[in-house]
Specification:
single chain, five-stranded mixed sheet, alpha/beta
Length: about 140
């Protein structure tokens, strides 16, 4: 059995790109499921990820879904990259970082520490059929 990894909030193409690049370095078979409630953002992330997988000829099966419940039952690992406050909060945080003269790389690390969480295996918070869609 190979890993089945779900990225919740994958519509953040820059963050997803970094995760996929790290995953490609493993060069191990897996299923990668991208999930985002924004169809346009999901389509961009999916297209970018397909190109990255093809360029490396990686043994990765890619799926995309707007509802996490479509992919979580088969997930062996879940990475939640949902930013608290959405894109508006992210833009505000970026503006503050620029005002303080903090470099982009440092900003991404700070953003990661402030706004993102990592969940592995099944979490009842994400797998419950009763839980509402993440918006």
């Amino acid at each position: 059995m190979h890993d089945s990894i779900a990225i919740i909030g994958a519509g953040s193409a820059m963050f997803t790109r970094g995760l996929v690049a790290d995953l490609l370095q493993r060069n191990r078979p897996c299923t990668l499921s991208l999930v985002d409630c924004d169809a346009d953002a999901l389509a961009v992330a999916e297209g970018m990820t397909r190109k990255m997988i093809a360029a490396r000829r990686a043994p990765i099966t890619l799926r995309a879904a707007m509802d996490r419940r479509d992919v979580l039952p088969s997930a062996t690992a879940v990475i939640c990259t949902i930013g608290v406050g959405g894109r508006r909060a992210q833009r505000q945080a970026q503006a503050k970082q620029r005002q303080r003269g903090i470099q982009e790389e440092a900003f991404h690390v700070r953003l990661l520490e402030d706004h993102f969480s990592l969940f592995t295996l099944h979490s009842p918070l994400f797998t419950s059929a009763q839980s509402p869609p993440i918006e």
